Amino acid sequence: MDQKVLKRPLKVLLSIRQGQVGGGESHVLELVRGFDKSLVEPVVLSFTDGEMIDRLQAMNTPVHVIPTTTPFDVRVWGKVKRFLHNTAPDIVHAHGTRAASNLFWSTRALNLPLLYTVHGWSFHKTQPKTTYYTRLYTEKFITRQAALNICVSNSNQADGQRLFGLKNSMVIHNGVDLNKFDPTRTYPDIRQEYGVRPDEILIGYISRVTYQKNPLNFIRAMALLKNTVQNFKVLMVGDGDMKDEALALASELNLQDTIIFIKFRSDVPAILKALDIFCLPSWWEGFSIGLLEAMAMHKCVVCSSVDGNREIVSDHVTGYFFPPDNPQGMADTLAYLCQHPEARAQAAAKGETLVRQTFSAPKMIRTLEGVYQQLVRA
Fold first, then answer.
1. Does a structural domain hold residue 185?
2. Is residue 180 part of a domain?
3. DSSP class per residue in 171-220
4. pTM above 0.85, yes or no
5. Where in the sequence is the domain holding 352, given as residue range(s)?
6. What's the rounded Cα separation, in Å, for the pair 207 and 98?
7. Shared-domain flag, residues 212 and 149
8. For the chain, what is the domain count?
């Protein structure tokens, strides 16, 4: 197929594992919003319902849910194949391992080109060896089913090449909508809404409350931070399967008056505007959209020193690092920044400049549109 022969936009099916909004889902929403509709006609397939589905419907984007939370779920493969046959996309673009694991058979059966975007590998060193190697070989299998593998970070690409001979790959870094995440705009006063005083330093965790995002060590660090800093509050924004455990730990450590737990909210720019420090304590990251958004909003960022984060942040320049397994180290870094507002301001200014110059959403989307066109010409 050739775009010039088609004389119409390419129909691209974007698929992701869940309808709840996290990093990968925000990425899909950004693509749908930013595509040149004369070039790309997006359709979305999710494997659970959620906030993302509602947002896509509000954007008049065709979206379909085939319920499963299981990778390689052969029970839904027939439904997936029928949906692809009826939708007739030119390209299928899977975001994340679980989506790809439930699409590769159908795309192969229907002779459709499959793109696989790696939003961070599903294997990581904190897993038991059996889990680690099972997932590593799973990724090796999936990547070899794809016509092209897109990594969101250089480190992900390098790890795939080193650990299992990743083939047919390229890097496209994530980008941010700089009109939406604009610190010069006026936003609702989140500090006033939650009773945070002007003299209190506000630290934010805005993420899914899941193992990857390391919420328990973050909460332990907040308890340690109270030993040296008293005038701070925490907004912990998000939902996930560790939310109850996080609430229980905060209660156990007597942090009920320090940490304000908030369900997922869609007005992330307003929340970021209210913060003094944004913290991302993840055990691993592909290329964090949340980190880019915070930097775009002129916020000092503090994050775990894992590969994906190191491609974005320069330590003590555009942000600050700590080891994810060390709550005391996290607390010490935060204490320094609470006590040195000039260091926060310098990192915020340099971080915003970096994101605005390098990681814009239109740049990312134009690159991907070019990839789609090249793929159908192959």
1. no
2. no
3. E----B-TTTS-TTS----HHHHTT--TTSEEEEEES--SGGG-HHHHHH
4. yes
5. 190-358
6. 20
7. no
8. 2
The length of the chain, given as a count of residues = 378
Cα separation, 240 vs 234, in Å, equals 18
- DSSP H helix total and E strand total for the chain: 17, 13
3-state secondary structure 300-360: EEEEECCHHHHCCCCECCCEEEECCCCHHHHHHHHHHHHHCHHHHHHHHHHHHHHHHHHCE
In this structure, are 274 and 316 located in the same domain?
Answer: yes
The structure tokens listed for 191 are 């500090």
Q: In this structure, what CATH number is given to the domain that contains residue 94?
A: 3.40.50.2000
Does one domain contain both 287 and 370? no
Mean pLDDT for each consecutive 10-residue tract of the chain (378 residues)? Answer: 64 91 84 96 96 92 97 97 98 96 98 96 91 97 98 96 97 94 96 97 96 97 97 96 97 97 93 98 92 97 94 97 97 98 98 96 95 89
CA 54 to chain centre: 19
- 169 and 240 both lie in a single domain: no
Q: Is the domain of 107 the same as that of 226?
A: no
What span, in angstroms and rounded, lies between the C-alpha atoms of 204 and 207? 9
The residue to which tokens 């994906």 are assigned:
308
Distance CA 375, CA 370 (A): 9
Q: Is 84 left (phi over 0), alpha (psi -120 to 50) or beta?
A: alpha
**13 lies in some domain:** yes
Residue type, 15: S
> What is the 3-state composition of the chain as percent helix, strand, coil, each rounded to the nearest 5?
45, 15, 35
